[in-house]
Amino acid sequence: MRPDSHTYALSADEKDELRDFRLQFHVPHFEDKECVYLTGNSLGLQPKGLKKYLEEEMEDWAKFGVEGHFQARRPWVSYHEPFAEPLSRIVGAKEEEVVAMGSLTANLHFLMASFYAPKGKRCKIICEKKAFPSDAYALQSQAKLHGLDPAEVIIEVSPRAGEYLIHIEDILQAIRTHGDELALVMIGGVNYYSGQVFDMKRITEAGHAVGAKVGFDLAHAVGNVLLSLHDWRVDFAAWCSYKYLNSGPGGVAGIYVHEDHAQNKDLLRLAGWWGHDKERRFLMEPDFDPIPTAESWQVSNAPVFALACHKAALDQHDKAGMSALRKKSLALTSFLEKVIKEVAEDQGDNGFEIITPTDPNQRGSQLSILVHGHGKPLFDKLSDQGVIADWREPNVIRIAPVPIYNSFMDCYRFGEALEKALKA
Ligand SMILES: Cc1ncc(COP(=O)(O)O)c(C=O)c1O
Question: What is the CATH number for 11?
Answer without folding.
Answer: 3.90.1150.10
